[in-house]
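If your schedule permits, I should be very grateful for your opinion on a structural question. I have a record of one protein: its chain in single-letter code and its fold written as discrete structure tokens. Would you kindly read the sequence against the tokens and tell me how you understand this chain to fold? Thank you for your consideration; the sequence and its tokens are set out here.


***
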Amino acid sequence: MTVSSKIENIIIKSKKGKLLFVSDFSQYGNYDTVRKALQRLTDKGIILRISKGIYYYPKTDELLGILYPTAAEIGKAIAKRDKARIIPTGAYAQHLLGLSTQIPINIVYLTDGSARKVKIGNQTIIFKKTSPKNLSFKSKLSSLIIQALKSKKENNITQIEKLRLTEIIRQSNEKEKIKKDIQNAPVWIQKIVLEILSAIKDELA
């Protein structure tokens, strides 16, 4: 059985909607051998090439056709493959928190893995190398809030945005973790978040 046939058998038995990497099949040959096998399967229409070294076993819908993975799903899959930690930052962090309705063209993650750029259609996923300190928060929500506020800058935080953060924190079960995590944030961010936590505490009193 050829390398291409072996890989094809594995893929068609897997769940549709799965992202595939050349490294997933390293036991069947070196990088070039596996890449060529995946390219043959792409040519046969079994899988799609999403970006360099990234392939997709397509999931389809009767009405919508192929359901492509989001850039966020691809970013998480890359991090999982590399055994790296990532946190959204910049405009993407704002979007995830609902502080911005626009989906940014450049989706930026801080990571302790390799710095890289991955082009996905008209979007680019950017992984920026950062220190372990920026990835050491107990709460993912904490890191998201801190990164979103950093990108907004101190004097650009509106009352509506503060109310949005209040609602998010109020509904979370991570208030104590956020309180501890925020101690490692810039002072002006500490002030905003601690005021929100205090207001929520007063509501519950």
User: Anything to note?
Assistant: The CA atoms of residues 94 and 148 lie 5 Å apart. Residues 138-205 form one domain. The longest strand covers residues 123-129. The mean pLDDT is 90.
